[in-house]
Amino acid sequence: MRRATDTAELRRVLCAALGSADPVCSPARLGLDADVLADTGVMHRPTLVAGAAGYGPTSPAPTAHEIDALVRRAREAAAEQILVPGVRRTDDTGALRAAGFVPFAAGSECVTRLGGDVDELLRGRLGAGRLDDLRRRSRAVSEELTWERIPLSGLDETPLARDALTGRHSGLLDGLLDAAALKALAQGPLAGRAELLVRRRADVVQAGLLLGSHSGRGTYCLALAADHDDPAARHDLHATFLYRLYADAHRAGLDWVHVGRGEPGPLRALGADLFVPLDHWLRAPGLTAPEQASTEVGLTRFAAPSVTTVAVPGPARFRHRPRFDLVDLSSNTNPFLGPGGRYPDLDTAELARTYLATVGDLPSQGGVTSLTEDHLIFSSGAVDAVSLLLTALTSPGDRVCVTPPTFELYAHFARVAGLPVTEVPLGGDDYDRLDVERILAADPRVTFLCAPNNPVGTRPDPGQVRELVARTRGLVVIDEAYVEFSDQPSHAGLVAEHDNLVVLRTLSKAWGLAGARCGVALGSPGIVEALRRVQVPFGFTDVSQRAVRERLVDTHRVRDSVGRILAERDRMAALLAENPAVERVFPSQANFLLVRLHEQEHVMERLRAAGILVADVGSLVPGTCRVSVGERAANETFLDALSRTPSPRHQSRR
User: Which of 362, 562, 578, 636 is the most buried (most CB within 10 A)?
Assistant: First the structure.
C-alpha cells in the first residue's frame, strides 16, 4: 500500500470506523502491540493516525513537508500524539527521527511470491510432506464448505457479504473493520479493486477481505477471520484459505500475495518467502528516541583501494528495498513476453537465512548457525567467488599463495589478474600437511586452501589451518566444495571469529545443483560488502534461486544420496586397492578417489577407448587419475574396464 491516494483513502475509512472527521484514537484502539511503551501511558492518549492505519500493510515514510502538515493537523484536532504505523525499515526514515518520532518494532510484512505452479512452488518451500498435508486439509475443507468471491462494490446487493462483514452471523470481522468502515470502503475509489472471499455452509465460517494492488500484479489480504468453534476449523482454516488464495491468484496471473503482518516463522511455514521488517513511529510528549545504531556495513580492511571509492553497482544497491508492489518502469525490458522479461530478484536475504538454517542442521556444521545473512553472498558457482575475491580484495603486486596439489583455477585467476603466485606444496604422504612457516614467510595477501582438497580428497590438518588464520596478515580462503562428504567439521564456524577468513561453498556437488550455478561465500559483513561492489548484478537468476530453495527443503533426499555416495566410495576404494593396475588409492573425504596407477598413460588411453572419462591429474600428482563416485552401474563399468586393461609388462610376458 505505497500510493499516497490509497493511503489517504484508508485514512478516510478509519475515520468512518471512528465516527470522526479526523483519524484520532489511542494506539491501544488500533490494537498495536507495544510492550516497550506500556509504562509510559502513551497507549491510551488521543493520537492522530497517519499512514494506512490498521488496514494497510505498510505506510510510506512521510517527508519533512508531510510531517509539518501532520503536526498542524494534530494541533487542530487536539491530539497529543502522532502515530505513523507500519513503516518499512528500508524506507528513508530520517525525517521522522529528526522530527522527534520514536520507532518500536511492528513485526514484518509477509509476502508470498508466485513464480509458477502453486503446488510446485510450495513443494519447494515447504517440502513434499507438508504440501501433501496441506492439500489433504484443503480437500477436506472443500467438501464441507463452499468458496465464494464477491466484489465489494456489490456489497449492498449481497446480503451474504454484508452479513459476514458486519458480524450479523458470528461476529467474524469486528473492531475497526465495522459496518461503517466497510460501507465507506465499498463506496470509495478502492471498491473496484476489493473483494470478499467467503467460506460457508448456511452461515459464514470464514471471511477474508482482499484488495488488489494498484500495479495489478498482486493482492493484499487486508483481513482474515474465522469461526474457530466450527467443526471445519480442525482442518486449519488459515492455512487452507491461503492455499486456495495462492491458486486463485496464480490462475489470475498475479505475481504475489501479501498475507499481512506477523512474525516470519509461522507464515514461512505457509509459503511466504519475503519478509520486510516494520516499525511504528510515535511522537509523544516525554518520549525520546534511543540512540540510533548505524545500519551501514563497514568495509573490510582488506578491500582494494579502488573498491573503497565505489558503491554497489546499479540496482543491486537497492536490493533490500522491496519491489514487489512498485510499478517498475526503470529497467528497459520487454513487458509483453511474460515474467521471463523481468530481471531476477536481488534481495536474497530470506534464501540466505534458509541456507544457513538448513546447513546448520547437517552433521559437522557446528558454528554455521552463528552466522547471519550479512555474512553470506551468493555467486555463480564457487569459482565465480574466487574471481570476485581477487577483484575486490587485491591490488597489483599483491601475492597469492596456493598449496599444490590443489584446484588449478586459484592460480589461474590470480595470474589472469596479474598477481604473482607463490606455491607452497602440501606435505605428508596424503598431502594433508601445511607448511605454515613458509606461507607466513611469503606474506601473501590471499592464501587459498582446499578442504577437502581437489584432486587429492584429503583435508589439511585443522590445527595448522587455525594457526595460519590466526597468524597471517592476509586473507585465508578455504574452499569447502566437498565438505558435505567429510566426517570432519567445517571451518565455517570460525568466520564469525576472524575477519580475515572466507569459506567458499557450492551447491554443485553434494546438493546436486551443478546446473543452477550457485556458490556461497561466507565472510565478515565487510568482506561481503566488498564483494557486492564488484559483482555483476542479476547473476543469480530466478531459476537458480528457485532450484536452490526447493533443494534446501528436501534435505532427506540429499542426506540419503550422500550416504549412498559414501558407501559406494568405500566399496570402490576397497576394490581398486586390489586391482593390479592400481599402485595406491588415497584416503578420501570427498565424493571422488585419487588413484595412482601403474603405467598411467597406458591405462588412461585404454579407459578413453572404452568410452570412460576420468580426470587425468598426473600433472598435479604424478601417475594419478581422479575418479568420481557415480551410480553403481557406471562404477561397475569403470572397474570392469580397469580390470580388463593389462599392463605393458603383462603383455610382454605372453
Answer: 562
Please state, in angstroms and rounded to a whole number, the distance separating the CA atoms of residues 246 and 123.
Answer: 13
Q: How far apart are CA 185 and CA 9, in angstroms?
A: 8
Look at residues 282, 495, 290, 476 and name the one whose alpha carbon lies nearest to residue 375.
Answer: 495
φ, ψ for residue 330, nearest 5 deg: -110, -10
- Report pLDDT for 330: 85
User: What residues contact residue 152 under an 8 Å CB cut-off, 6+ apart?
Assistant: 161, 182, 185, 186, 191, 194, 195, 196, 209
Structure-block grid coordinates of residue 646: 593389462
Rounded (to 5) percent helix, strand, coil in the chain: 40, 20, 40
d(CA 359, CA 419): 34
**By the 8 A CB rule, do 75 and 40 touch?**
no
DSSP H stretches of helix in 394-505: 409-416, 436-442, 462-471
User: pLDDT tens for residues 475-525?
Assistant: 999 999 999 999 999 999 999 999 999 999 999 999 999 999 999 999 999
H/E element, 626: strand 624-628
The C-alpha cell that represents 50 in the structure block? 497517519
Question: Please, which residues have CB within 8 angstroms of residue 558's CB and are 6 or more apart in sequence?
Answer: 484, 510, 511, 512, 551
Q: What letter does residue 57 receive in the DSSP assignment?
A: S
